[in-house]
Write a structure and sequence with these properties.
mainly beta; Thrombin, subunit H; Pdz3 Domain; 2 domains; 15-stranded mixed β-sheet; 6-stranded antiparallel beta barrel; 5 helices; 11% helix; 47% strand; protease; hydrolase; Peptidase_S1_PA; Peptidase_S55; serine protease
């Protein structure tokens, strides 16, 4: 997925159960509830070091590779990009030793001052992007978003990060999806100093962390969590944001149910007119059927942008642990 300060993200068989009335009443009373969201969020993560974003030639035959972490220049530790800039400005002439971590392997490369200075445009110590907030658990004070792992496009891997936060963002423009070309949301963080929650985990089922209680104003009514075995082929809804900060409900149809995921098509004419299909940045949009919280949008079919796939909420919440 692509990440930038301008936030263009970015875009990856149920068995029917029957209960006697008494059992159904007991089962319903014990259901867990979480709050469906659908808000567009800006994501900021402070990386655990200074990383190389592109393959860069240091000297004849020696390259830095995308994803390399620069740990030291000679004996000087490097912990952040501004730290790197300060240390480079104080370098004297002569060969220096770059101490590199490459996928857990320690590497040493020789480079002169000019070569080290030329690295600056190819370094980063943070990653940013956008997505959709899926749920808030009011009892635990936690949240989940995206429904899939963040993969930094320049590092080509899940970023190793020290800390991070999510922020409410405002949709300013939509680039429509067309067959073969995914569209995307163009959005900006509207309150950079006031975060929605911290990022504590970037897992295969999404990002998770602690919710900021100061944002109770964006919370809706909690819904029962639907078990995967209850989902049926037929009509459903997604909650998502395509304009400003307003969360809207749009109709979809569940067309296929598998053990680990479900497939759907967009049927809402208003949404299709606005977006042309599923957009990059919709990942994490809640899916609701019969007033119960089913799961989250996770993927689109590039050649058929009106079709998408979703993750069951009970599976996604398992990734929070």
């Amino acid at each position: 997925m692509g990440w930038s300060r301008r936030l263009q993200l970015s875009v990856s068989l149920a068995a029917l159960l029957f209960f006697l009335p008494l059992h159904e009443a007991i089962y319903a009373s014990e259901r867990e509830q979480v709050i469906p969201m659908g808000h567009s969020i800006g994501i900021q993560m402070e990386l655990a070091g200074v990383f190389v974003t592109n393959d860069v030639l240091i000297n004849e035959g020696n390259w830095l590779k995308a994803g390399d972490a620069i740990n030291r220049i000679d004996k000087m530790p490097i912990v952040a990009l501004n730290d790197f800039e300060k240390k480079v400005s104080s370098l004297t002439d002569g060969q220096k030793v770059l101490h590199i971590d490459r996928n857990g392997l320690a590497i040493e490369l020789l480079a002169d001052r000019d070569a080290i200075k030329r690295l600056l445009p190819f370094l980063k110590d943070r990653t940013e992007g956008t997505g959709t907030l899926t749920y808030v658990d009011p009892k635990k004070g936690t949240y989940g978003a995206l429904g899939h792992q963040i993969i930094d496009s320049s590092l080509k891997s899940p970023p190793s990060f020290k800390n991070g936060a999510i922020y409410l963002s405002e949709i300013e423009q939509i680039k429509k999806s067309t067959p073969g070309t995914p569209g995307y949301k163009i959005s900006t963080i509207i309150e950079n100093e006031d975060y929605l929650g911290t990022i504590q985990k970037n897992g295969i089922y999404g990002i998770f962390g602690m919710w900021n209680d100061a944002y109770k104003k964006v919370l809706a009514k909690p819904l029962d969590i639907m078990q995967a075995t209850e989902l049926q082929v037929g009509s459903a809804e997604i909650f998502t944001t395509v304009k400003g900060t307003e969360v809207e409900k749009f109709s979809i149809r569940i067309v296929q149910i598998e053990e680990d995921q479900f497939h759907f098509v967009l049927t809402d004419s208003k949404l299709l007119e606005t977006t042309g299909g599923i957009l990059q940045g919709m990942s994490g949009s809640p899916v609701i059927q019969d007033g119960k919280f089913v799961g989250a949008v996770t993927h689109m079919f590039v050649d058929e942008p009106t079709k998408g796939a979703g993750l069951f909420l009970e599976t996604m919440r398992g990734g929070e642990k």
